[in-house]
Each structure stands twice: as C-alpha cells, then as structure tokens.
Amino acid sequence: MTVGLEQYIAVSAALFAIGFFGVLRRKNTLVIYMCLELMLNASNLALVAFSRYHGGMSGSVFVFFTITVAAAEVAVGLAIIVALFRKRQTVQVPDLNALKN
Q1: Which pairs with CB-CB distance under 8 Å and at least 24 residues apart come from 46-52?
Q2: What InterPro entries does the entry give (predicted)?
C-alpha cells in the first residue's frame, strides 16, 4: 500500500483549514501564532508532496528556504508577544493597540 499525492494534499488541506479557522476564532495571540505556523507547515507539506510526485527537488529546496524564513518569523513574532505581555500583562488580541502608546 502506497500513499498517493491525493492523501498528502488532503492532509495538507485539513491542516491548513484547522489553522485558518484557529486564526479566525481565537483571541489569544499565542494560539493565533501557533495556528499561523500550522498553516505554514501545511503549505510546506503540499510543496514536498508535489516535489515528490514530479520527481524533482525544487519543492524541497523551496521548503528549506521557507523554514529558514519561518525561524526568523518566530523570533520577531515572539518578541512582539513578549512586548505586549510586558506592557499589559495579557496576550489577548484586543489589547494589541496597547503597543501604539
């Protein structure tokens, strides 16, 4: 039994949908951030699946660069969340305007 492209794309779509609805429904910035990372990993899974299906390495190389950019995104995003928490002692989305002052 082999796993085909359709199964990889189905799992990728399911992960992306879970992440998307998590971003829309949650108020906690940490949970929203985790859902964004889930969406990014779902797209990486789809890229690797298509790369494997076509027999090339271009999708895998692109995923490598995407993961590199995601590491920088984690550093910046967590710094913003920590700054928000230090200022207002909360990580709720309605308090994001607190950083403007």
Answers
A1: 46/8, 46/9, 46/12, 46/13, 48/8, 49/5, 49/8, 49/9, 49/12, 50/5
A2: NADH_UbQ_OxRdtase_chain4L/K, NUOK/Mnh_C1-like
Per CATH, which fold does 5-89 belong to?
Helix Hairpins (1.10.287)
Instruction: Indicate the SS3 state at residue 26.
Output: coil
pTM of this structure: 0.83
Q: What is the SS3 assignment for 56?
A: coil
Q: Please state the domain extents for the chain.
A: 5-89
Three-class SS state of 77: helix
